[in-house]
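Schema walkthrough. Field components (list of strings):
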Amino acid sequence: MLEPLILQEENNQEKKLPNEKYEKLQKYIDELPVKEGTLIQVLHKAQEIFGYLPRDVQLYVARALGVTGAKVYGVVSFYNYFNDKPRGEYLINVCTGTACFVKGCGAILEAISEKLNIASGETTEDGKFTLNGVRCIGACGLAPIIIVDDKVFGRVKVEEIDKILSSY
Amino acid sequence: MKSLEELKAIREKAMKKLNVRTAGEEEIKILVGMGTCGISAGARETLTAMVEEINNRNLQNVVISQVGCLGNCFGEPIVQVNIPNQKSILYGKVTPAKGKKIIEKHILNGEILEDLIIGEAFH
Amino acid sequence: MKNSRLHMLVCGGTGCESQDSNKLVNALNLVLDKYGYKDEVEVIKTGCFGFCEKGPIIKVQPDDIFYVEVKPKDAKRIVEEHVIKGRKVEDLLYNEPVKKEKVERQHDMSFYKKQVRIALRNCGLINPENIEEYIAVDGYLALGNVLTTMTPMEVIELVKESGLRGRGGGGFPTGYKWELTYQNKNDLKFIICNADEGDPGAFMDRSILEGDPHSVLEAMAIAGYAIGAEKGYIYIRAEYPLAIHRLNIAISQARELGLLGTRLFDTDFNFDIELKYGAGAFVCGEETALINSVEGGRGEPNAKPPFPAESGLWNRPSCVNNVETFANIPPIILKGPKWFSGIGTEKSKGTKVFALAGKVNNVGLVEVPMGTKLRDIIYEIGGGVRDNLKLKAVQTGGPSGGCITEEELDIPIDYDSLKSIGSMMGSGGMIVMDEKDCMVNISKFYLEFTEEESCGKCTPCRIGNKRLHEILTKITNGEGTEEDLERLVTLGDMIKDSSLCGLGQTSPNPVLSTLKHFREEYLEHVVNKNCPAGVCKGLSKKKPVNKQ
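Field assembly_structure (string):
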């Protein structure tokens, strides 16, 4: 395994990320039959292991695959699915697809944002919730929808939000 | 997969199972009355026996369906046979053995079992 | 294999699964077991029935009874009544909203009556996690026929003759695309399936992958044989975990039976498929951007030519087709090109799947012949506008499309007619809007989307869409002027003419088409500072403009 870098300032990390996680990632990379063209695949795995992709992890992936850090950052910042900030304990996804939009997902997102005092893409101070807008999960019959981790709440009304949030 | 024949052999086997699902208008339908009295008269055993018989004989165009009370409580278990473009036939007091016989005679050979008939079908 | 007398088909699509259809399956099995009916009745989790509005759905065969909105707690009643006593559970039957009557059979439901299911033929019929059920409905027979009796060129000619066009949006003739890739000689070629469904509000590709994954695998192998590729990739959104799961099962089952791998049907043809995960970028629906993403990089489009048919993945000839396009291939091979070209209009053959959503009674997936009138889709299949409100517009083609008004509802829809009225087929998203929707706000929604999804490579798209969005925000905040409307048109036309790829070339469509059809509503916003629909905050709400 390569020695992980520690860039604490940029990383907002108090300490180095655990070595076992790097080892797990390295093992995955070692087992790839070819390394060419696997950057996105490896980043998916890294995000699954670490929960997010901080700068340290991005640079580790760069060195392990023999590509530049700029290329890795370019890919991480390009795709919605990758995030470089830690996630809260629960992820609240508000569907903002067209079907949910015409059924009032805007008000739902606003209400949650107000209630938790965070904007879309942010995490609450206590690290409990992260709020995100997602594009269509394809259950348009249930619009508007919010998804907390894997649990789907369909035909959500603004009045129900307190109840949903307080169940976590 | 070595050949089309091999694929077709898998298909034949699997189709038997899906036959129930793909039933269309052109199929022969056997309805078994499964009201309370039908069940207590042994309709379920008859139904099971007939399903078995159809499977054993590998009949593709016959489906069995259970329905509510057919209205002739004196004759339970009741079995109705609907063959497309033919008059429906209503059989009464159909034991498992008689059920198998219906399939053998009526469905396969077109011989109606006169002595089992109890009346006109409503639909 | 046991042969049960009764099959309960429970929808296992994402929509129904998120409403506990999994628990329902377990509950049914539990109750059946308790009453001792396990050997007579089989519970099968199938793909999407399309009738997402009323999920979870159970269809009981051979009785053809259709239950809607079934909760896990209903399992007991269904077994006690339907299975044991042969009586329908009345209150779980579908209530036709227009005629206000209960409908028992799927065939009698107006939602299904006008549909012709080719791409969705097996969704809701077979268990997608069992290859034998796919084989039972003639699965892999087309591949077998092609490999043992046809030359690649004969396959291409057949697909060309069928008139099949790409279902992902562009509408490029599929057979012709295959031919171009076939003609470019190379020792390595690739077939790629575009499963990066990016249009927010369209979910037909996901439903096909979830409900009938083998049909896509089979079609990819056929396409591979036709163009001379031994390797296929499916580029799929990581946001579709269920589809990924079912594809993985399907691929391993196909490998096990030797329907993927080496020397298929004892011929010299080898073919295998690998999944590549996308990571959420709308622009990756564009084929060159998709190829860049499969290579592991940023999904930015390249200038064409060279086309992928010449130089695609790893600079080798590659052919990219969409999921729905592939799903049409096996039936075309088995039933013949004439059968397929007999359906549809002169220039658009076959059927198209639409994701009907928004303010319509029956939200769901519908597959209709090309040339069906929009009015039939919305009022007959869709059951009309919700709450008896008036229809205002229908948006087709997602962020690349435009809106269609009441007056245009009788135009038979196909690729060309939609284009002629300023919209497009796109991937088949269809959003119904009523009088309570503000068209300026809808345009703003789409522009916000394209601004976010623009990859930034070319200036007109990167900056132009941002400016369009800013102007629309200004208007919805009540600060717009009449000159702004002219600016929207000039800028919109410019972006369309000068952008590099399909995203930018179509992104102004929503604003241009609403501006054309609902100019009065825009004027009301900028002149009277009034939002007739009462949607835009910061604007007054006076009586609605009587447009129609």
